[in-house]
Amino acid sequence: MDDEILTIRELAALLKIGEKTAYTMAQSAELPGFMVRDLWRFRRADIGAWIAGKVQRKDPGLERKP
């Protein structure tokens, strides 16, 4: 469902990162998200597009370091 809204916890699980990392990335606008009062929310479609953009550009942030 493309219009699904994710919480920080759900986003972190989807990206397989820590919740604190997801929160920090959202605060610094590294991830596409929005606030509902004081809670971060993310559209699954936006996250999918963000991932596709990272993979397409071969962003070094997604590559494993030896």
Unreliable parts? none
Could you estimate the helical fraction of the residues in percent? 40-55%
Shape-level CATH architecture: Orthogonal Bundle
Helical element count? 3
Report how far apart the termini are: 36 Å
Q: How many strand segments? A: 3
* Oligomer state of the chains in this structure: single chain
How would the global form be characterised?
Answer: globular
Task: Please summarize what this structure is.
The chain is of the alpha+beta class and 66 residues long. Helix 1 crosses helix 2. The longest helix is centred in the last third of the chain and has 13 residues.
Descriptive keywords:
15% strand; 66 residues; three-stranded antiparallel sheet; 45% helix; Multidrug-efflux Transporter Regulator, Chain: A, Domain 2
What features would you describe in this structure?
The structure is a single chain. The chain is of the alpha+beta class and 66 residues long. The chain has helices at 8-15, 19-27, 44-56; strands spanning 5-6, 34-36, 39-43. It has a single domain, classed as Multidrug-efflux Transporter Regulator, Chain: A, Domain 2. It is 45% helix and 15% strand. A 3-stranded antiparallel β-sheet has the order 1-3-2. A hairpin with a 2-residue loop joins strand 2 and strand 3. Helix 1 (8-15) packs across helix 2. The model has no long low-confidence stretch (mean pLDDT 89).
